[in-house]
Write a structure and sequence with these properties.
globular, 49% strand, 0% helix
């Protein structure tokens, strides 16, 4: 959900009422699937999800991220079939997750 201050917010379990929190990820080069690993920074918890690449355009991964609880999370993204140590295959990001 975009806010007027330019920040983005996600809600838990990929939904906010009748709205889905669909997030497209664009990755140059792409691959058959994108793995998302989430680790909670302000408590205990982790999760993982895997998403297939869209048929068109290549390198786009449409997702509904199912974050299990509100809190502060860091995400690690990895392309299927790419070595985990490859900087082009992994990237990280953080988000503040609101409770639904």
């Amino acid at each position: 959900m975009n806010r007027s201050d330019g920040h983005a917010e996600l809600t838990t379990h990929g939904h906010d009422g009748d709205k889905n929190m669909k997030v497209p990820w664009w990755i140059d080069g792409g691959g058959p699937s994108l793995e998302l690993l989430g680790t909670r920074l302000d408590g205990t918890g982790s999760f993982s999800q895997e998403f297939p690449e869209a048929l068109s355009p290549k390198g786009v991964y449409p997702t509904i991220v199912d974050i299990p609880a509100a809190g502060c999370w860091v995400f690690i993204f990895a392309l299927a079939g790419a070595p985990a140590s490859s900087s082009s295959a992994r990237s990280t990001g953080g988000a503040r997750i609101l409770g639904a």
